[in-house]
Structures are given as structure tokens and as C-alpha cells.
Amino acid sequence: MADRIKIAELTTTLTKLKNGQTEFDFIGITSNGIDCLYFVYEKGKFNLEFESMVEEQTPFIDKLKEFAQMNKFESVMTTYGNQPYYPSVTPAPVIRIESNSTLEEMVALGTKIQAEIFQNNSTTVYDMVP
To answer: Which domain of life does the protein's organism represent (predicted)?
Structure first.
């Protein structure tokens, strides 16, 4: 069973990521399999990623692009070559929001995206991914 957290515990979770105490150089949180945000730590900064693996996630790519633009962050489309679980001849799209944030800024940004884009709140319970 996956570890579970509430958004108030994101600081502790991202601190473990920053300190190399996680299996990978990223972690994700999801409450329902659709709202899966990945927090990536590289070169001393945090960035966000969202991969559209199921059809229900696809509309959120554009919403996250708009969010990034409105908040003056660069967003980049990429892929990890994963085959989505919906009919597609191309690999699953990934939007990467390059915020180059500190830990505190990333907690605020992740909290804001979960609230504004996915309508989650402080009582939402997230499964840790992977």
C-alpha cells in the first residue's frame, strides 16, 4: 500500500526528496489517479510535471499550460515514451512547469495547483507515487 499524506505534509515529503531520501529524484501525489502531480528535484531546485496517462487527464494539460502562463512560469511539453491507456499513436504527453522553485515555493505552488486546477483542499488525502 502506498504512503498517504495530506497537503500539510508536503513540506516534509519534499524535504525527503531534496535530501535524497526517496527512491527516485521525483515523487508524485494523487488523490484519485487523475490529479497526479510529480515534484522533480534537480540542480537544487524543484519543478512540476503532469503526465496524461488516461483520457480523463488530457484536459488538464491545457489547464496547466494556462496556469503556468498566468503565473509567469515556462512550460514545456515532453514525453517519457510511456504508452497511454487510451487510443493514441503517440506516447503520453507530459507538461513540465519549470518554476525552479525553492522547497517553500514548491509547497505553495503544489498546494495552489491542487486547489485551483483539481479542486482539492486541506482535507484531501493523497497517495504517494511511485
So the answer is: Bacteria
